[in-house]
Specification:
transcription; 5-stranded parallel β-sheet; Arc Repressor Mutant, subunit A; 5 strands; about 10% strand; about 55% helix
Length: about 220
């Protein structure tokens, strides 16, 4: 079945451009468009897309607030944020709000389609170096580790904490398994437990958490 996508952007040319690119893919279908965050929330409820391509700066309701509401209403909702500037504090806030990753608006058709596929498959779009750089940059601005974060870290086992650090460094399950010399299925179990214990929805939020708790030191 095709991956169903909702495109959210206040600029008509951007919406149409992304729609054309994605509809050209045999496994992706754009099922709707929205011009602001408020309309996006309504469209998500009506259309139940697999992935929401979400602009950040929009009138009436921005992409951060819309992402927060969409994720709160449906824990399985997958939002891929669009931005024109990679080191964008608004993108960082969107990742904290529950977005699964982000793409630059000048991404190629292949990058756009691959990003949609990755997020639709339930993975966080964390692999690109720029995403880790974004998290690192804005985590520096957290003056001290959040007390709540530190308390939650205490609930993790030593191995779970180790896995969390490696997630924040951008390693995949297979890479973590190789690094720790264990089965990949074991790592999947550890990742699931980390997310449940910390109340996080995916690897992107786990990475943000690790930096803000100072388990990984921003450079």
């Amino acid at each position: 079945m095709s991956i169903r996508v909702l495109v959210v952007d206040d600029q008509m040319m951007v919406r149409e451009g992304f729609s054309v690119l994605l509809n050209a893919m045999p496994d992706i279908e754009v099922v709707g468009e929205a011009v602001n965050g408020r309309e996006a929330i309504a469209q998500v409820a009506a259309l139940r897309p697999d992935v929401v391509l979400m602009d950040i700066r929009m009138p009436e309701m921005n992409g951060i607030d819309a992402t927060r509401e969409i994720v709160a209403a449906d824990g399985d909702a997958k939002v891929l944020v669009l931005t024109t500037f990679d080191l964008d504090e608004y993108v960082y806030q969107a990742l904290r709000a529950g977005a699964s990753g982000f793409l630059l608006k000048d991404a190629s058709a292949r990058q756009l389609a691959d990003g949609v596929r990755v997020v639709a498959a339930g993975e966080a779009l964390l692999a690109p170096t720029v995403t880790r750089r974004l998290i690192t940059e804005f985590a520096k601005r957290v003056e001290s580790p959040r007390a709540a974060a530190l308390a939650q870290v205490g609930d993790l086992t030593e191995r779970e904490t180790e896995v969390l650090v490696l997630i924040a460094q951008g390693l995949s399950n297979a890479e973590i398994a190789a690094h720790l010399v264990v089965a990949e299925s074991t790592i999947k179990t550890h990742v699931s437990r980390v997310l449940v214990k910390l109340g996080l929805r995916d690897r992107t939020q786990a990475a943000v958490f690790a930096y803000e708790a100072r388990l990984v030191t921003p450079r």
